[in-house]
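Support request, please re-run this one:
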Amino acid sequence: MSDLAVMEHFRTLEQRMMDHVRRLLDDSRLRIDTLSGRRVVQSLEKEVEVADQSLELKRLMSQLNCADRTIESAMPVQPSLRVILKRRKWFVFTQPTGQLEVHCLSPVQALLSGQPPAALTGSEVQKWLTSHNATRARVPLTLVLMCPSGFTREAHDLAERRADRTLILVEPNAAGGWNVVGPSETKSLVDLFDPESVEQKQSRLTELIARRQAELLSGGLAGDKLAAATGLPIGFVESFLKNYAAQSGDLLSRRLEGRVVLFSTSAAPPPRQGVAMPLLQRIRAIFSGQGEEEKKIAFLSERRAMLAQQRERSVEQMDQLEKRETELRRSFSDSPAESARRRIASQLLQTRKELARRQQLLSVTAQQEEIIAAHLHNLQLVRQGRKAALPAGDQLAADAQMAEETLADLQALSEMGSQNLTVHEGGLSQEEQELYEQLQEQERDQSAVAPEHAPTAINALRVDAPRIDVPPAAGPAASPAPDTKRAADESAL
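Re-run finished. Output below.
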């Protein structure tokens, strides 16, 4: 990601945070500490002040000699929002009773200097709190700090609740969501400052499930893995998986091996509630054993999902044992004492034996999973064949014979129609074609006679024009005619 893209991303995060806090002010669930205990912000009079550090940003850009309108428009401006809560006194006067402040602490200096933005450390947060204490009012303060580049673990330890202040830290995570860190006794308040709505969280989970369709069809998706991939609480993910399975027709959500797993059954959806089945159809379903295959498919699908979770658990344990083996071999090489090397060799042997046992267990689990998958596939084939309701062989032969007879009749009718009506080129019948040729022949005769018997206008003028004698022009003697000149030459000879 380029520097300009990082700037725009940080500014977008700031805007999302501030928009969320503005909407939260009208939420009846927002209750903060005041002089008279925790009170709903919506029920108190509010004085809202909004500010940012845009002027400070221009000054800093001028000092660093990087004045650029493009960079300035993309840079985060560190907005802040201050809400002073007041209560009525003697029905006329108002008295401050609580305060809520939200500050965005973007790493402006690092962005302008071209350095990678780093998370705020505990000392930096403590320094900011110290400078902020001199200006705040003497009422209980709920302080929310948001940093687009995140906070360190040392800074997370500062998020606590005191008599005069409650500190909450908000940061984006790599999964596309937000981490909100605050005191455990005010968890309901801390969760409210998550800028990501419930619909957005569910949308991220739905997209992740769609991308992992292969795992869903082969074994199943565990709730703890989805929670780790999305950065969402495990309780929220498990509740979503149960609702997601209930809305879909071929998915189930069960707690297997200590975790909630979403897996596919490829079974028919259950009948809709409130739809009465006819008595005759119900009797046929009872005596035909309809529904037993669906139960078998559901049971085998659950069994396969459980085996898949066991297989994944065995793989994770084998990874841990392999890491342990690597550490023991490294310790054996680094240890100079002979007794220590003997002890490490014994531990290494036990680790390898345990690794071999896990490998055998993994092999057996994989074989069981393969057998159940084959049985499940056979049941699905049988159910699909019955669902199609294909016709019998004699019915197919009779229908094929009728189709051949119909095609033969159509072919005979087509040949008969072509014999009765002969169509020439251009789509004309025989009589129309003869008349067309006769008209063309008459047109050719008329065009051939016209130049011989019809004089043009120029020829008519030449015939009827009177003859005019033109006298010889005055001037030098005209030269003798050609015949007179030829006779004179012959006499001279």
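The first strand starts at residue 31 and ends at 34. Confidence is low (pLDDT under 50) at residues 267-276, 454-482.
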